[in-house]
Design goal:
794 residues; alpha+beta; 15 helices; 43 strands; 30% strand; globular
Length: 794
């Protein structure tokens, strides 16, 4: 067979090559003259401006008031700086600054330094937006000169039975002068810096930090790695060059690399702690590889390439530290991993412009930081840039925090303490980061097993403030909830709650949660994931519905009171008005509005809900009232054997009760039937369409997997993701597992192929590689504990 020249030519694709398709978050795709700022609800920021700069203020969730105060370079407060006429006073901003809110401390200091008194603002403030402003509404202002613009989101305390929450704004600043290169301004210092050091691309800098002081290492333009190394200065004085040792650190911390919280320290080979990670806005680093070295580049065909090891050698020589052929280091922002075959892999960093790691020196240390020069791989996004280092006095106080984002385009939010943290931190130091909050893992005086028994036999208190709350209001609120949730929301009456799934069009779950009906056009959605609220707002916008969906997570914290004696306890604490149910009258999945103690006490909402499988309640309050709420419940609970309960014990009781957990028992690849909550999908009785309905009809008619219970005939620990086999074939996986104190055996939840999901089926749980070690198990009824849910309904 021969091919003609014409056929050969026809196989050629005409035209020049096209660039690779790439979708990046907005923070990495802004033009060089565009900046983005977030203003938190009940917060304020200041932005310096020059003539011609344009500020676009977007009301992200709708319904949030905004005050703008413009301060000219000479200190004059005048709306004319923005080409506007003043509309009123700055009472909202003034109240925020007077509140003592810690996050506004730097703004207060900046105003004091400039000698600015907002009481002199007269009527020069601008008032933008109102309570009915739709989400996404924008206002644009243009600077007529140089100065500062203060943008505030005034708000009062949200009533727990009201829905007047405080929500964020986004500000996009378009500068008149476009940068010649794509570079980014550094974020403001966290405090007055001692050291303010730029590490230029492909270089390294050494510096000294005193014990107790803080080191902030910033990625200036995003997607840039920096190797960090340090030595105890006192050991150097004695001639001992003991560098930070990542192998010793991994061994002691039990983690791939330290993060803020319990496992936060880096050590040298003597096991002396050198530094502690306090804050991290990136969350992805490396503590396995050496800093890049000459031989690495020689071996891949780039002899003589600049490298971090030689840069370290040069920078550290001033401290008398000898050179090395390859430096062990903490490689911040370096994105590495180990795949299933044991191969080390790397990709572009997760870090964005301004991301940082903040550490505290635990002894006097000599440090060195590089701006990695690798332009031969994706390690620096193919474009090596600068790193910046700042240090701060140990007299400053910085709280432990990790940044999270609701979506890739969202502004980062740092881990917070809940309103109950002040009380609970007196009972334990074992806190873990959970979805942006520090929650107690277990308590020193008891431990998970004792906390478990207190929940099953007496009563416990549990901080669940990390649950996401969304206020859904407006004439189309019910229509939105009916369309986006699987349950029939139209059947709810005010005061009633229903548990529901929320699904994508393909039937996979976004979240599960509860919806409270506060009024005809007023709902409160409570779930586990920030994105569920974003999804609600996206659907409302797509359908053109008249409804606001606003986050109230930071305005409403909740303390779960669970266990057989929880009702008798709360009867002593909660006062309710005549038109609201008392604790004795409150039915399952109902809520009441009341106060602590009497008619003059702090306001609360109490719902008869929980996540333990026991009789239980949740008490919802503003975080500023959380201390009073906790104290009253704790004092009354002493006669009822009350214990605090952490997340470890919560996991035990919820697995026994067959209550599912996101990321373990369900995901966006799991439908409600496969997650064991098919009862939340009333396909026959709900007359209205909802998102995912057609897919769920199909998936119910043709099921492939089922969530089941397992009794495990072994004391060897089983965990999430362990494979489940029948013979050699894998037929499922463990979603959650625990050793049940009540049942005296190890139990699990598992998702199994329907062909092997019958009760009594013998299966094996694979350990090691799944074949070399097996644990016998039997499929049993779901759930293991009180499957008919009689206890919470008592």
């Amino acid at each position: 067979m021969s091919l003609s020249p014409d056929s050969l030519y026809r196989s050629v694709i005409a035209g020049p090559p096209r660039p690779s398709g790439l979708i990046l978050p907005r923070g990495l795709t802004l033009p060089g003259n565009v900046e983005r700022y977030g203003v938190p609800g009940a917060g304020a920021i200041v932005i310096p401006v020059e003539e011609g700069d344009r500020l676009t203020i977007r009301n992200d969730e709708g319904g949030q008031r905004c005050e703008v105060v413009a301060v000219a370079a000479d200190g004059t407060i005048s709306a004319r700086l923005l080409g506007q006429t003043g509309q009123g006073g700055a009472e909202g901003l003034t109240a925020l600054l007077a509140s003592g809110e810690e996050s506004l401390a730097r703004l207060r200091g900046r105003l004091e330094q400039r000698g600015l008194d907002l009481s002199r603002a007269g009527r020069e403030a601008l008032h933008l937006f109102g309570a009915e402003t739709p989400a996404g509404t924008e206002e644009t202002l243009t600077a007529a000169g140089s100065g500062d613009v203060i943008i505030a989101t005034p708000a009062s305390l949200m009533d727990v039975w009201g829905q007047d929450t405080a929500t964020p704004l986004t500000v996009i600043v378009t500068r008149t002068q476009s940068r010649t290169q794509i570079t980014h301004d550094l974020p403001d210092p966290l405090a007055d810096p001692i050291l303010d050091l730029r590490v230029k691309s492909a270089t390294a800098e050494a510096y000294f930090v005193k014990a107790g002081d803080y080191i902030q290492i910033l990625d200036v333009d995003g997607r840039q790695c920096t190797d960090f190394q340090c030595f105890s200065a006192r050991k150097l004085d004695k001639g001992r060059e003991l560098a930070l040792d990542v192998t010793a650190t991994r061994s002691l911390m039990g983690h791939a690399y330290p993060m803020p919280g319990l496992h936060a320290k880096y050590y040298d080979q003597d096991f002396t702690p050198l530094i502690e990670v306090v804050q991290d806005t990136c969350g992805r680093h490396d503590a396995f590889s050496l800093a890049c070295y000459a031989k690495y580049y020689d071996d891949i065909g780039y002899p003589g390439h600049a490298n971090c090891t030689e840069n370290f050698n040069g920078a550290l020589s001033q401290y008398g530290i000898g050179p090395r052929g390859g430096w062990m280091a903490a490689n911040f922002f370096f994105n590495t991993g180990v795949d299933a075959h044991g191969v080390m892999i790397a990709d572009e960093p997760w870090s964005r412009p301004g991301d940082y790691v903040l550490m505290r020196a635990l002894t006097d240390i000599v440090c060195v930081s590089s701006a990695c020069p690798d332009d031969t791989t994706a390690a620096n996004g193919w474009n090596p840039t600068d790193i910046h280092v700042r240090s701060y006095s140990g007299a400053q106080s910085f709280k432990r925090a990790i940044a999270i984002r609701a979506t890739p385009d969202s502004e980062p939010k740092m881990t917070k303490e809940t309103g109950f943290h002040d009380r609970l931190s007196k009972l334990t130091r074992n806190f873990v980061e959970y979805r942006g909050y520090w929650l107690a893992n277990s308590y020193a005086a008891a431990g998970p097993v004792e906390e478990y028994w207190a929940c099953r036999e007496k009563c416990v208190v549990l901080d669940l403030s990390a649950l996401r709350k969304w206020e859904v209001t407006g004439p189309d609120a019910e229509a939105l909830m009916q369309y986006t949730l699987t349950r029939d929301v139209k059947k709810l009456t005010p005061g009633q709650i229903v548990y529901s799934a929320m699904c994508y069009p393909h039937g996979g779950m976004i979240d599960d949660g509860t919806v409270f009906k506060l009024g005809a056009n007023n709902f409160r959605w409570i779930g586990g994931d920030d994105y569920s609220g974003v999804w609600l707002r996206e659907q409302a916008e797509k359908l053109g519905l008249k409804v606001l969906v606003r986050s109230s997570t930071d305005q409403m914290h909740n303390l779960a009171v669970q266990g057989p004696e929880s009702r008798e306890l709360l009867k002593k604490v909660i006062w309710t008005p005549p038109h609201q149910p008392t604790m004795a009258e409150l039915g399952w999945f109902r809520f009441t509005v009341g106060r602590i103690g009497d008619a003059e006490g702090v306001p609360v909402v109490v719902s008869r809900t929980g996540y333990t499988g026991e009789l239980g309640y949740e008490v919802w309050c503003h975080p500023k009232h959380a201390g009073e709420v906790f104290d009253a419940i704790w004092a009354a609970g002493q006669d009822h054997g009350i214990r605090p309960m952490g997340l470890q014990a919560l996991d035990m009781v919820r697995i026994e009760a067959g209550l599912i957990f996101a990321g373990y028992d369900f995901s966006d690849q799991t439908d409600p039937f496969e997650a064991g909550i098919g009862f939340t999908v009333p396909l026959k009785t709900k007359p209205d369409d909802f998102i995912g309905r057609e897919a769920l009809i199909r998936r119910k008619e043709h099921p492939s997997r089922k969530l089941v219970g397992l009794d495990i005939d072994s004391a060897i620990e089983v965990g999430h993701g362990d494979c489940v086999h029948v013979g050699r074939a894998q037929v499922g996986e463990i979603t959650s597992a625990m050793r049940s104190p009540l049942l005296g055996k190890q139990i699990a939840l598992a998702r199994i192929d329907v062909a092997h999901a019958d009760l009594g089926t013998a299966v094996e749980i694979g350990k090691l590689d799944g074949q070399q070690k097996r644990l016998p198990a039997t499929i049993v009824g779901f759930a293991h504990y009180d499957p008919k849910k009689t206890r919470p309904q008592k």
